[in-house]
Design a protein that fits this description.
- The complex is a heterodimer.
- Chain A is α+β, with helices and mostly antiparallel strands.
- Chain A folds into 2 domains: about 200 residues, Macroglobulin (MG2) domain (Immunoglobulin-like), CATH 2.60.40.1930; about 40 residues.
- Chain A contains 5 helices and 15 strands.
- In chain A, the strands form 4 sheets. Chain A has a 6-stranded mixed sheet.
- In chain A, strand 5 and strand 6 form a beta hairpin.
- In chain A, helix 4 crosses helix 5.
- Chain A is flat.
- Chain B is mostly helical.
- In chain B, the strands form 2 sheets. In chain B, strands 1-2 form a two-stranded antiparallel ribbon. Chain B has a two-stranded antiparallel ribbon with strand order 3-4.
- In chain B, about 70% of the residues lie in helices and about 5% in strands.
- Chain B is globular.
- At the A-B interface, strand 5, strand 6, helix 3, helix 4 and helix 5 of A face strand 1, helix 3, helix 5, helix 9 and helix 10 of B.
- Strand 5 of chain A pairs antiparallel with strand 5 of chain B, so a sheet runs across the interface.
Chain lengths: ~250, ~300
């Protein structure tokens, strides 16, 4: 009887798979839950942490701040932010701050606080204290408020989430995480990154793709509306006028 | 039963939308208005993106107005010539309004302008209509004779050039006031997602002095033309018409409009106007007063393309 034991010098590794790699948005779509299963292969049995980062397609967005002018609340000029994914979820076995250092998390873009969201149109570079090319934002010291607001509003819409115990070990070396896509999740290509952390460092990384796409009638209508917008508009008016006429004919017979 | 809307990209409760369509259609048939001023705020409240709500609602208004205008035509209560002149203005207004709305969305001020428009137009018209209808109800209760209609029409209506005869309305006036009125309503239709009946009906009664019998039918006729054009323009320029949303609403809407149009003959005109005034006033205040309160969230997220 001999059990397979990897040679002790094999580096620790992580492996994972999604229950669904293709989410189909049909007329009955109300959001989806995808389960990610994975395993940690580590002969040394060092304490390991797993971090799962799911990102949706990037889409620039605009943010406006309400200011009071003459007694009424008015939107300021919108600021364009780039680098904000349309969907973002960070799940981990422990709070991210306990798993790795600030700089490591920042480098990996792990956690909503470390997303590379910026407002390029508001930025300029200048020389400060003799240092050239320092990036300065026109939003000034409020910049962090703006950035936080992006995350807060996305979290409210269910599009951003950070779950400190979203990754659970179900058996020795076997872990599981759940990804909840809301009905408003953007259409497009997603990626799920799975990191294995030991001693505060990512020692293994896996990437899994996920697509969310409209299918069937939803897709046909969406394509129609975008490829032939004028014909689509005419069709919608014909339906409206036709339905109005039909109803009045039907009621006249009664 | 939930349904995912392909353009709005949200999931909505389908029976609820059909019921809402029917309720607003009933009000529409009863009062001879499009009902858009009620439906658009409700759609936004349900989580439909405002741009999609405004555009799809124009489509719904076109359907319920068609449904009720046909019964008005049978009663010869539509002045097609006046409706045509108003619609000519409406067409210009719709082109203008869709572009203005596009520009406002880019500036990030579309919501502000929509809220202010609701507050100002609905507030003013609701208040005027309420005071007028209440005073005529009170006069009738006291057994006084109805206030004689002032037949002296404002001179500026007659001093203007391009006079045209409108036999069904028994008018011989310049086309300039109705065309300008049409332009104004066309712009509102594109910006607020309404047909504009709440502006047209009082304007036809108090400014153009048309006979009460043809006002509602004519207003509906002009609304069909303006909102149909607005739908096509919004779909073509902004891709914001959700055909599934519009269809759900109009299924209930066209039926509700028929029932409402039948019910309207059972009530007195001034009582109907008083109820409509209250609804108009309530919606205007609800939409507009939020501008004065401290917002719970100081930031607002918008899509990059407006």
């Amino acid at each position: 009887m001999s059990t397979y034991a990897p040679p002790p010098d094999t580096p620790p590794a992580v492996s994972a798979a999604l229950t669904t790699a293709n989410v189909q948005v049909t007329s009955s779509f109300r959001g989806a839950r995808i389960v990610l299963y994975g395993a940690v292969f580590d002969p040394t049995l060092k304490p390991s942490d797993v971090v799962v980062i799911v990102r949706g397609p990037d889409a620039p967005l605009r943010l406006a701040r309400k200011t009071r002018i003459a007694g009424i609340w008015v939107n300021s000029k919108p600021v364009v932010f780039e680098g904000a994914p349309g969907f973002y979820m960070a799940a981990s076995t422990r709070p991210l701050g306990e798993i790795a250092s600030f700089s490591t998390l920042r480098r990996l873009g792990a956690g909503v606080d470390h997303l590379r969201i910026n407002a390029p149109l508001e930025q300029r570079t200048e020389t400060r204290y003799g240092v050239r090319d320092v990036v300065v934002s026109r939003l000034g010291p409020d910049y962090l408020d703006w950035r936080r607001a992006v995350v807060r509003l996305k979290e409210k819409a269910g599009l951003y989430a950070a779950d400190d115990d979203g990754v659970a070990f179900v058996d020795r070396g076997l872990f599981k995480a759940e990804i909840d896509l809301p009905a408003g999740a953007p259409i497009g290509a997603y990626s799920a990154e799975i990191f294995l952390f030991q001693d505060g460092q990512p020692v293994s990384r896996r990437m899994r793709g996920l697509t969310v796409e409209k299918v069937g009638l939803e897709r046909a209508l969406y394509v129609f509306a975008n490829n032939r917008p004028w014909l689509y508009g005419l069709a919608s008016v014909v339906i409206a006028l036709g339905a109005g006429w039909l109803a009045s004919v039907a009621f006249r017979r009664n | 039963m939930d349904l995912y809307l392909p353009i709005a990209e949200v999931s909505v409760n389908a029976p609820l939308l059909v019921a809402l369509g029917a309720a607003v259609g009933f009000i529409s048939g009863l009062f001879g208005i499009g009902g858009g001023f009620l439906m658009t705020p409700v759609l936004v409240f349900l989580g439909i993106p405002p741009a999609v709500a405004v555009a799809s609602e124009a489509n719904h208004v076109a359907a319920s107005s068609t449904s009720s205008v046909i019964s008005y035509t049978r009663r010869k209560a539509v002045d097609f010539r006046m409706g045509g002149v108003l619609a000519a203005g409406g067409v210009m207004g719709a082109f203008l309004g869709v572009e203005v709305f596009r520009w406002l969305r880019l500036l990030g001020q579309a919501d502000l302008v929509v809220s202010l428009s609701y507050l100002i137009f609905l507030g003013v018209i609701g208040a005027l209509m309420l005071s007028e209808s209440l005073s005529s109800i009170l006069r009738r209760r006291r057994g006084e004779a109805p206030k004689p209609r002032r037949d002296r029409r404002p001179p500026w209506l007659y001093g203007l050039p391009f006079k045209v005869r409108f036999p069904r309305s028994r008018l011989y006036i310049s086309v300039i006031p109705p065309v300008l009125l049409g332009v104004f309503v066309g712009v509102l239709s594109a910006i607020m997602g309404v047909g504009g009946g709440f502006v047209l009906v009082p304007a036809m009664v108090y400014i153009l002095r048309m006979p009460a019998g043809v006002v509602v039918g004519t207003s509906l006729f002009q609304i069909i033309i303006t909102t149909s054009l607005t739908s096509v323009l919004q779909a073509g320029r902004n891709q914001t018409v959700d055909i599934v949303l519009a269809t759900l609403l109009l299924v209930g809407g066209v039926l509700g409009a028929q029932v409402g149009a039948r019910a309207s003959s059972r009530f007195r005109a001034e009582e109907l106007r008083a109820v409509l005034a209250l609804i108009v006033l309530a919606v205007g205040l609800r939409m507009g007063l939020g501008l004065f309160f401290n917002p719970s969230e100081p930031f607002e997220l918008m899509a990059a393309n407006g």
